[in-house]
Amino acid sequence: MKKITLILSLLLAYTGFSQPVITAVIDGTCTGGTPKVVEIYAKGTVDFANFSLERQTNANTTWGATFSLASFGTVTNDFVYVYYDGSNNNFATEFPSAASKPSAEDNVVSINGDDRVRIIDSNNAVVDIFGEDGVDGTGTAWEYIDSYAKRNDGMGPNPSFTVSEWTFGGPDALDGKCSQSDGDPLENDIPGGVAGYLFTQSYQIEGLKLYPNPVTAGFFSIQTVNNDTKTLRIFDILGKQMIATEVENGEKIDVSSLKQGMYFVKIKDSENNTATIKLIIK
Fold it and tell me: Which end of the chain is more exposed for a tag (fewer CB within 10 A), N or C?
């Protein structure tokens, strides 16, 4: 029970009503340009019977290919996935972390890297949207042909598309990256992988920076405005504490013993201000 309470506190500071959030849109590069993937996070307890996913293609101004999300049932603080593989079977191979979550295949996400998707509720009100309504994404900042877009932590849902809420891989970022080509699943070629969105990250410590992130050389450092000694703890995604130490500004923290993946760093300063930051180790 303690582990469950801890990881929920790390993942979510829930203060609002329950809503689904589009957290990633991916245009795969395996056979047939698959898999196409839309990742959705259930903020709080979401009854997906009340929501549908829609697609808008090319420069069309109308929405179609509506897919009811009801099959996901009720989900609390977790991810679900809608994907399209066509006649291929690439989703589970290329996104094993996503395949372990609730998922459904439908051509509503047969998207081509310049199309839009949105979530609507039972009253047809827009809950969240990716892409500019009525705009072909080719040549825009949000184009994701053979690439991906990921929602920045703490952002969304938003019924109006806002570019600053997203991080984009840029066109062709995943070209040649399919495991069929390089033996490595596509999710490993996307910084932070999938299922890593945090609805809220706490930054109560002034000027806090954690670098480098992702970690590629076995260590990272922190920097803050104040030079006091800070308590630092690192947890895995199940809430298990992996490292506990005290650190100074600029001091190297050795994480070479940790496996590749996502972790959460919890920092507390001498005035009991705290921060929780997602850490990626490659």
Answer: N
Q: DSSP string covering 126-168, please?
A: EEEEES-TT---TTSTT--TTSEEEEPTT----SS--GGGEEE
- Distance CA(77)–CA(13), nearest Å, equals 11
Tell me what pLDDT residue 144 has: 97
Torsions phi, psi for 156 (to 5 deg): 85, 165
Task: Please provide the distance, in angstroms rounded to a whole number, between the alpha carbons at the two ends of the chain.
Answer: 30
In order of their start, the domains of the chain are 2-189 (2.60.40.1260), 209-281 (2.60.40.1930)
Q: Among residues 145, 141, 146, which one has the least CA distance to residue 162?
A: 141
Pairing verdict, β 74-84 and 103-105: parallel
pLDDT at position 6 is 47
CA distances from 88 to 35, 58, 172 (A): 8, 24, 21
Based on DSSP, count helices (H) and strands (E) in the chain, helices before strands: 4, 17
36 vs 209: which has the higher pLDDT = 36
